Amino acid sequence: MAYDEQKLLRFKESVLNDADKKIAQMKSDALKYEQTELENIKNQNYDKIFNYMQNKVRDIKWKYSRKITKKSLELKKETLVFRNELVNKLFKQCEQEIINFINSDKYKEYLLNLVKKSSSDFVCDNAKIKIRKEDLKLKEELLELPGISKVEVDDENQFGGFNLIDEKCNLMLDETIASKLDSERKYFYKTSMLTIIND
């Protein structure tokens, strides 16, 4: 009987060892599964957090980008208004200088010399000259110049100078001070570096 008990005891130990091994394996598998699942959950949460942060960063960028764009447009508008005020002030001063000049004694000599030069360069004879009303006092002197056959008033001419016209040749020469001032204004805008820069 002792032999049977020994066999039974070994069988019991063998079963208990197998059970312990299986329990240890199950615990190890459960621990690995738990760690894997925790890692997966952690990664999923990291992905969610990362996506959330990316969306928030995008929202913040968009919000501030709109604010910056709006502010940039406001500043460009203010700069444009300031530039126009500055240019208008400058050209108002120029206009005042022109008015002072056309009311001076130097203007008569300037006008007659310019008409003389222009009429000699003008290819047609019998040209008509249009001047401002205030310059009509020079009508006789203008008619004595070569190529000038008629003097008329130009109601639109405010700053002096003249238009030389030959209707037969269908030619016109604009020597009004207003057109020169307008050309200078355009040139000034191009070259003054007062342009608005787009980013």
Q: What would a concise description of this structure say?
A:
The chain has 199 residues and is α+β, with helices and mostly antiparallel strands. The chain is 69% helix and 10% strand.
Span between N and C termini?
103 Å
Biggest sheet layout? 4 strands, mixed
Number of helices: 4
Q: What would you call the shape? A: rod-shaped
Question: Would you identify the regions where 5 or more consecutive residues have pLDDT less than 50?
Answer: none
Q: Strand share of the residues?
A: 5-15%
Which strand order does the major sheet show? 2-1-3-4
Number of strands: 4
Give a verbal description of the structure.
By secondary structure, the chain is an alpha+beta fold. It is 69% helix and 10% strand. The chain has helices spanning 2-102, 106-121, 139-143, 177-191, and strands at residues 127-131, 148-153, 163-166, 171-174. A 4-stranded mixed sheet has the order 2-1-3-4. Helix 1 packs antiparallel against helix 4. The longest helix is centred in the N-terminal third of the chain and has 101 residues, at 2-102.
Q: Characteristics of this structure?
A:
four-stranded mixed β-sheet; 199 residues; alpha+beta; single chain
